[in-house]
Amino acid sequence: MTIKAATAANTSVTTTQQWQRMDAQHHFHPFSNNADIRAEGSRIIERAEGCHLWDSDGKQYLDAFAGLWCVNLGYGRQELVQAASQQMQQLPYYNLFFKTTTTPVIELAHEIADIAPSHMNQVFFTGSGSEANDTVFRMVRRYWDIQNQPERKIIIGRKNGYHGSTVAGASLGGMPGMHKQGDLPIAGVEHVDQPYWYGEGGDLTPHEFGVRAARSLEEKIKALGSHKVAAFIAEPIQGAGGVIIPPDSYWPEIQRIVKKYGILLVVDEVICGFGRTGEWFGSQYYHLQPDLMPIAKGLSSGYLPIGGVVMADHFAETLAKGGDFNHGYTYSGHPVCAAVALENVRILKRERIVERVKDDIGPKFQQAIATLADHPLVGEVRGVGLLGAIELVKDRTTRLRYPDEGSTGTLCRDMALQDGLVLRATGDTMMMSPPLVINDQHLDELITKTKSALDKTWHRLKGK
Ligand SMILES: *Cc1c(COP(=O)(O)O)cnc(C)c1O
Question: What's one Pfam family here (predicted)?
């Protein structure tokens, strides 16, 4: 990478190349190839407003990914800035340990209990979704100890699930690329099939396949011995795995199985929570009865880091009976983060944004992305609410993918970036998760630019 010499006149203006050089020298990136960053430089995002981002060259992008599935209210909401500033002045920090609390945390827990399924009324706060799932791991085992069933230790997750990046989070998740690094999963975690009909359903109907994927949980429980299984954890809709929408038969069958074997159900709401599906929680969209719901991301629209675990009443009562719970984070329910999350939830309510996703912009978004299904590169378009996925394939009838899986998705993502659109690729699946405040005009921009990225990708691939 070449560095433009800074002239005496513009030393105060740092150029993109200078930023990139400093970044490559001193900042080691998460989920990135840091050798590539050294060779090519990273993208530098400088500011944002509404649904748009601007990079350090002043180029504008439509953020069809809401940061990382989290900026549900869009960028630049002054109420959130003020909530943070006001709380910073009044009480910038205090902890929740040793029988202490703060007022934004009390109010936030109250608001979450109000929107959560009616049998869930207590919240344990964390700093992130990964911490929420580490908390789940410890809570679940603690729960069974208190119930005098200490043998129930195993937590079952799913292949290609995502539950965060800490040791417990990455173990509960089923990402092979993560498991390979650091000898994961840790002991006591098992994985079963995902309900990914397009990728793994073969000749089965979605209904048949959904039941079969769910039954892999029952088979695993039987193989392990049901008295040893503590919980099953899953996302309502897998996000990072590729926006995998389970067939309608899947969740009812899972619900039957966890009930039959008396196993706790942990529904990871980190993406689906706070309106993404058109309901407050994915559990409501699929009519689930979770015992625990990890939350994060949309809880604060990403403005500040905060997460938590929402507990069913019976679970919280049991845990409380057990005496001291020896778990917590310095920043559990950080008051500034809680104040921002509180205002975020209140805005979602006041402006009826979740209802809007359900009745207006969600259906429009689904209709709009469905128009891309005819494209010669597209095998399937799917989505719920404001989640969408487009599978890129070489052969639409046989679902055959291009060789070197992932390279086509990356190419399409880069073509979109050139056009000023941020999409994300998992393998060769393009994913969308725009801010919930996306409007009709943004939607037109999203579809026009996605279509253009698909065309460019298609021509590149044909040219080869
Ligand atoms: C992002 C995510 C997490 C992890 O949250 P972090 O805040 O990144 O730690 C956990 N579960 C799901 C479903 C997620 O999408």
Answer: Aminotran_3
